Amino acid sequence: CEAFWTARRAPITQAAILLLLALTSSVAMKIEPLKTKIDPVKCMGNWYVQVAVPTPLDSGASNGLEQYSWDAEKERVSVVYDFDTPKGKKMTVQQIGGVTDKEFGTTWWVKPKIGFFYLPFKLPYLVIDVDTENYQWLTASSPKTTGIAPWLYIMTRDQVVTDEYLAPRIALAEKAGWDMAKSERLPQGVPVVPGTPASEAK
Question: Alpha-carbon distance 8 to 120, whole Å?
Answer without folding.
Answer: 19
